[in-house]
Amino acid sequence: EISATLDTPFPIPAGVYAQTVTQVEHYTDSLFRFRITRPDSFRFRSGEFVMIGLPNAEKPVFRAYSIASPSWDDEVEFYSIKVPDGPLTEHLQKLQVGDTVLMRRKPTGTLVNDALLPGKRLWMFATGTGVAPFASIIRDPETYEKFDDLILCHTCRTAGELTYSRELVESLKANPLIGEFAQQLTLYDTLTREDWPRMGRQTDLMASGKIFTDLGVPPINPETDRGMICGSMEMLADTKPALEGFGLEEGANNRPATFVVEKAFVS
Ligand code: A2P
Q1: From CA 138, how far away is CA 128, in angstroms rounded?
Q2: 192 C-alpha vs ligand 1 centroid, how far in Å?
Q3: Tens-digit pLDDT profile for residues 54-77
Q4: pTM beyond 0.90
Q5: How many percent of the chain have pLDDT more than 90?
């Protein structure tokens, strides 16, 4: 679309959008978010991911990134880790407003409303940058129409790593599209390596039942509760059986069920 007008050192490959960075915000030494312009023809479902890269090589490196913005937003937001020697993130972390980001045209993913049967309560389990797809989902009015209660569980090592989700949830109250639904959403944020009002891994807090007493809700029940999980491979490997232990079953786009899973990318 606008690629012809961009001043990039290498030609834009076929089949990708070349978009302009509109905002960059750094949270910690290792976490930041950035926003890019959105092509009119780019459509996605809240919770999906897309491949992104930089126009800094003849054959650019592309990596999967969850889209952190909702489908109604006129920009596209990403939440990223900074890896010192990461083939993409070592360059991405230096992004400035006005720079060009490449984005493949076709989004995909399983953390979407369509892959879940209707229910009363949606549990979103995230560790680290695994919160990114939920940043999209909790900004989508459709989620609040489908579920009465949304619980976003976000566990990190240290407090600075919770800033993104905490600021986002706080900002929703004033959001013209979501504000009226904001009381349906609860953020359950826990830390594992720094003092905090809520401590521990989500898996341990489910096993002990503390997460349910803290939140004042009954234990997860397949009649009423739905789950989405996004974190490291180890986190998924431990959280999946925990949900299965409550009687939930894994679904997919073509076979909706009671929970869905996606690994957090670039970890
Ligand atoms: P912990 O500090 O006990 O390892 P990481 O940066 O390693 O991906 O971890 C992000 C957060 O996820 C940390 O709070 C970490 O807790 C937690 N975590 C790591 N592995 C698991 C797991 N297998 N199940 C649940 N939580 C996990």
Answers
A1: 17
A2: 8
A3: 998 888 999 999 999 999 999 999
A4: yes
A5: 90
* Confidence check on the interface: ipTM exceeds 0.90, yes or no: yes
User: Is the beta carbon of 43 within 6 A of some atom in ligand 1?
Assistant: no
- Domains defined along the chain, listed by start: 3-104 (2.40.30.10), 113-263 (3.40.50.80)
What's the pLDDT tens digit per position in 87-118?
899 999 999 999 999 999 999 999 999 999 99
Q: Can you tell me the distance from the alpha carbon of 247 to that of 115, in angstroms, rounded to the nearest whole number?
A: 17
Percent helix, strand and coil across the chain, each to the nearest 5: 25, 30, 40
Ligand 1 site, residue 157, Cβ cutoff 6 A: yes
Atom of ligand 1 nearest to the CA of 239: 24
How many angstroms is it from 81 CA to the middle of ligand 1?
15
* Calpha distance 57→41 (Å, rounded): 25
169 C-alpha to center of ligand 1: Å?
A: 22
Distance CA 185, CA 206 (A): 19
Give the amino acid at 25.
E
The per-residue DSSP string of 155-199 comes to EESSGGGGHHHHHHHHHHTT-TTTGGGGGGEEEEEEESSS--SSB
